Recover the amino acids of this structure.
């Protein structure tokens, strides 16, 4: 299992940008921001404050060594306050996906269903594919897709790999991941 | 003066006798086109010919039963003088446009995207909105592959290339070709340039701003891609000559008047028949001289032509009583419609709002007839159209721009809208839902622009 830590900061997004800019590129590249994931929605006031750039809470995830480096950097920045660090023990999310071409279907199926990283399981997976040969080509008034593929399931297991998968799913059109479910233990702040 | 082919002839006087409910089949086919693709797309895809037939027969049956010879003559006149030229032109533009393919890859950066949208906006008036959209949507999608934020680009492409850009010639958008068939001179539409350039310019600027904002949020790998990965090449470029032929044939049919001949009892101008014959030849020329792989690359098929032929047969049949009633002016059963719209601004918005929800081509015809009924009731159509242009040009400008521009407001407004959505989805771009399109794009972007256009022009 690849360990990963969740770090909660009292900071604005700009503070976080500044913090990550101070790291070596390869180190910063290992950090997953909360904004890249589908997390449980925060409170309305937090969202409003985040929108106007006010100081609020930022979550990100990083391997332990990077997390320690960040913790040290936070300690040197008077604008940012460390609220907590958790070692993530498990992570999972449900997903619902669809595609209207073989290329998009194969792309989504490849990274989210078929070629899963070691330590990640796919459970409750169902998929449905419909083909309508009459719908091939462009149509103006009666548009239909030649191929419709829909699937759903749950990804769970190695936390670092699950987080990376969710990040890719969030960035992919037609992937609709549910909120990330994570469990862990407090180890700092 | 001989009766022009678009005049209502024998049933012209019936506009004051037809009941308002005779417009129901017209409303039925338009609502079917609007709602079925949203509510039951698969049913509609497989059964739309039957639905169109039912609405057509609902009008044609009683119409022929009650008005017999006059009704048959009018249906035939509509078929020969309006429907066939309409289908022939769209088929020619679509087939010729489908033979032109852009190969290569643009960088997918805000400047390049905006340039492609600007090019498409200008091409739309020459190729037709459908043809321009079909040629350019795939290069646009390829350019933006890998970008996280793409749906907005496709929506603005729909606004500009699929709709607004088609305002400058009768080839650009079906409503304007119907206007041309009704007697609007070919080059009159160039007078819409100030409105088109203003609206398209504003929308393009808003697009560039939004895309620049979203581009900054893309991953570094996307932002740092080379600015010109692969130059664009035009395949099937000889089709541009066929396109020039279409343009020439349509323009000539508006300038050359050698007389009329009898076609199944309908007096049809020779120039119109000659034009349609030339268009068919150009279509065939394009078909036989273009490599099939070019059409495959554009996803070309006959399906859109079949759709237009079937659905517009029902639209042209069912619109007959509506046009007759509207042209009867205050004496017709739809007099309340006439009394509800008075100013060019009201015509712009009334035509536009209905064009957003129903297809914009028949909507244009209906409001053109409304304006003719208001100012020149009982005057033969071609004469009335020329008088409308001479005495009240703002009304025709308002109707034309309302129909063309506001076809962009929803997926329903103009034929390319659904096509672009479907192609984008198959390329992996998740497009907004019907309400998402309206709420996230049309209302915040188009509504203020159209309000400003109303203030400036109407």
């Amino acid at each position: 299992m690849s360990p990963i830590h969740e770090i909660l900061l009292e900071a604005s997004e700009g503070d976080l940008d500044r913090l990550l800019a101070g790291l070596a590129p390869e180190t910063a590249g290992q950090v997953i921001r909360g904004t890249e994931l589908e997390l449980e929605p925060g409170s309305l006031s937090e969202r409003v404050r985040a929108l106007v750039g006010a100081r609020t809470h930022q979550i990100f995830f990083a391997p332990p060594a990077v997390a320690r480096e960040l913790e040290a950097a936070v300690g040197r920045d008077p604008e940012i306050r460390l609220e907590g660090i958790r070692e993530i023990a498990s992570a999972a999310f449900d997903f619902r996906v669809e595609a209207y071409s073989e290329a998009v279907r194969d792309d989504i199926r490849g990274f989210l269903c078929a070629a899963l990283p070691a330590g990640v399981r796919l459970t409750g997976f169902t998929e449905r594919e419909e083909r309508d040969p009459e719908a091939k080509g462009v149509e103006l008034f009666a548009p239909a897709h030649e191929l419709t593929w829909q699937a759903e399931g749950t990804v769970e297991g190695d936390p670092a790999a699950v987080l990376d998968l969710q990040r890719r799913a969030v960035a992919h059109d037609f992937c609709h991941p549910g909120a990330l479910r994570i469990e862990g233990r407090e180890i700092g702040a | 003066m001989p009766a022009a082919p678009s005049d209502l002839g024998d049933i012209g006087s019936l506009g004051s006798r037809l009941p308002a409910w005779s417009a129901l089949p017209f409303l039925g086919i338009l609502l079917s086109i609007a709602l079925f693709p949203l509510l039951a797309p698969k049913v509609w895809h497989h059964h739309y010919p039957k639905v169109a037939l039912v609405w057509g027969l609902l009008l044609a049956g009683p119409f022929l039963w009650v008005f017999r010879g006059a009704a048959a003559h009018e249906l035939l006149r509509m078929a020969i003088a309006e429907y066939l030229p309409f289908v022939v032109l769209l088929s020619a533009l679509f087939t010729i446009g489908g033979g032109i393919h852009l190969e290569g890859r643009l960088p997918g950066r805000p400047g390049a995207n905006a340039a492609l949208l600007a090019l498409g906006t200008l091409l739309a008036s020459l190729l037709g909105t459908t043809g321009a959209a079909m040629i350019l949507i795939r290069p646009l999608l390829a350019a933006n592959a890998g970008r996280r934020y793409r749906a907005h680009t496709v929506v603005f492409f729909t606004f500009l290339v699929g709709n607004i850009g088609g305002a400058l010639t009768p080839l650009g958008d079906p409503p304007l070709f119907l206007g041309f068939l009704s007697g609007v001179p070919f080059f009159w539409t160039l007078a819409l340039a100030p409105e088109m350039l203003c609206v398209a310019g504003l929308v393009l600027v808003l697009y560039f701003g939004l895309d620049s904002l979203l581009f900054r949020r893309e991953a570094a790998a996307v932002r740092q891609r080379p600015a010109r990965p692969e130059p664009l090449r035009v395949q099937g470029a000889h089709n541009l000559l066929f396109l020039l032929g279409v343009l020439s044939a349509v323009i000539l049919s508006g300038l050359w008047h050698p007389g009329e001949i009898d076609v199944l009892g309908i007096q049809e101008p020779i120039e119109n028949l000659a034009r349609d014959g030339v268009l068919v030849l150009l279509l065939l020329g394009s078909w036989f001289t273009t490599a099939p792989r070019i059409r495959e690359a554009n996803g070309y098929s006959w399906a859109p032509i079949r759709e237009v032929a079937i659905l517009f047969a029902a639209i042209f049949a069912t619109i007959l009583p509506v046009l007759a009633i509207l042209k009867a002016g205050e004496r017709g059963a739809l007099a309340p419609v006439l009394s509800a719209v008075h100013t060019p601004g009201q015509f712009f918005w009334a035509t536009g709002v209905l064009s957003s929800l129903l297809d914009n081509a028949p909507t244009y015809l209906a409001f053109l007839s409304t304006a003719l009924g208001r100012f020149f009731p009982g005057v033969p159509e071609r004469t009335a159209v020329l008088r409308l242009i001479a005495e009240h040009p703002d009304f025709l400008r308002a109707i034309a721009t309302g129909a063309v521009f506001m076809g962009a407001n929803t997926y329903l407004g103009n034929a390319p809208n659904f096509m672009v959505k479907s192609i984008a989805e198959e390329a992996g771009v998740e497009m907004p839902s019907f309400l998402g399109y309206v709420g996230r794009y049309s209302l915040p972007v188009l509504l203020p622009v159209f309000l400003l256009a109303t203030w400036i022009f109407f």
User: Anything to note?
Assistant: Chain B touches chain A at residues 33, 36-37, 41-42, 44-46, 48, 130, 134, 148, 150-151, 298-301, 303-304, 307-308, 311, 415-416, 418-419, 421-423, 425-430 (CB under 8 Å). The CA atoms of residues 21 and 228 of chain B lie 59 Å apart.
